[in-house]
Write a structure and sequence with these properties.
By secondary structure, the protein is an alpha/beta fold. 33% of the residues lie in helices and 24% in strands. The protein has eleven helices and 13 strands. α8 (221-242) runs parallel beside α9 (260-270). The protein is globular and about 60 Å long. The chain binds acetyl coenzyme *A.
């Protein structure tokens, strides 16, 4: 069919919050954060900088690399748990900001698995009789807006950022698709492990919800840790076995960048430690942006060659999890 990744981009906000800065805000230490998570610093959006601002900046970079203009897009998907507002969807706001023509725009909410959910969905729509030609898939998060800065168990973990991927169908049957295989799953029975309780229709915003800090991320850390390792290893094994890909054929494994201990546990269970790309020490957990940032760093630094096999894998609130085997 010829559906290829034509461009990648990222937006990392300028402001850096280091572990030393956090030591002044809550009862924590650089030693605790580094040894438990591997994170040294994270970037935070400026007060007026929105999720769609970061998404649009990442999209513009990706379009430039693809040699395309925004009016060539016929599909825009934004993955986020921090949309600019409940509605309209953030994809339409990005559409306006980048100057795209009227086209299909929607958001995906699959937390940290969102970019992979988005790539799987976009590929399905492009490969179907719907025949979308050029798609923009973005993972964008302003997690600082839903982080409880007085809760040391969560505020040390997250950062803000956006990353974008452009797909194009060149309609050449001899061009192999970027999509070698994908796996997408969720289990709502595990939803209470990681959530933001208020702000939806169950608990609309009220003085009480604000006083009770219910508009912030709540997480069962150790339980999330276990589920993350188990689900990511499982998803990778399914794809590796289904496609009969020998481990030596994989050039990079890109796990969701939540925590270095989770990443290394996944890598060692797969026996692929030396193939893992990680940057969690610089950005923290940027949810649906994290895998896109890794892809863009690898792409722009020339560490991806045509034909390389990349295994990306993620997990997030829901619980959602997903893996994607990419032919670069
Ligand atoms: N600084 C110092 N001490 C802390 C901090 C902190 N920032 N946070 C917690 N502690 C304390 C706890 O209070 C606890 O103290 P206690 O023993 O006196 O009660 C102690 O440290 C140990 O706490 P644990 O929660 O057992 O620590 P653990 O080793 O499990 O590490 C962590 C915590 C880092 C959160 C880990 O569980 C983890 O990474 N979990 C996964 C988190 C994750 O990936 N979340 C993202 C999900 S993706 C998405 O969809 C957004």
């Amino acid at each position: 069919m010829g559906i290829r990744i034509k461009g990648t981009g990222r937006c990392i906000p300028e402001r850096i919050l280091t572990n030393a800065d956090l030591e002044k805000m809550v009862d924590t230490s650089d030693e605790w954060i580094t040894s438990r998570t591997g994170i040294k610093e994270r970037h935070l959006a400026a007060p007026g900088e929105t999720t769609s601002d970061m998404a649009a900046a990442a999209a513009k970079q990706a379009l430039e690399l693809a040699g395309m203009t925004a009016d060539m897009l016929d599909l825009i998907i934004v993955s986020t748990v921090t949309p600019d507002m409940m509605f309209p969807n953030t994809a339409t706001i990005v559409q306006k900001k980048i100057g795209a023509k009227p086209c299909v725009c929607f958001d995906i909410e699959a937390a940290c698995s969102g970019l992979l959910y988005g790539l799987n969905t976009a590929y399905g729509m492009m490969a179907s009789p719907l025949k979308y030609q050029r798609a923009l898939i973005i993972g964008a998060e302003k997690l600082s807006a839903i982080t409880d800065w007085s809760d040391r168990s969560t505020c040390v973990l997250f950062g803000d950022a956006a990353a974008a991927v452009i797909l194009e169908n060149d309609n050449d049957p001899s061009t192999p698709d970027f999509y070698a295989d994908g796996f997408v799953c969720a289990d709502g029975n595990l939803g209470d492990v990681l959530l933001m309780p208020a702000g939806g229709s169950v608990l609309p915003a009220s003085h009480e919800t604000v006083e009770n800090h219910q508009h912030f991320i709540k997480m069962g850390g150790p339980k999330t840790f276990q589920l993350a390792v188990h689900s990511m290893v499982d998803a990778c094994r399914i794809l590796l076995e289904r496609e009969a890909v020998p481990r030596e054929k994989i050039r990079w494994v890109i796990p969701h960048q939540a925590n270095w201990r989770i990443i290394s546990a996944v890598a060692s269970r797969l026996g692929m430690e030396e193939k893992v790309y990680q940057n969690v020490e610089r950005y923290g957990n940027t949810s649906s942006a994290s895998i896109g940032i890794c892809l863009d760093e690898l792409n722009r630094s020339g560490q991806l060659q045509s034909g390389d096999c990349v295994l990306a894998v993620s997990f997030g609130a829901g619980l959602t999890w997903s893996a994607l085997l990419i032919r670069w």
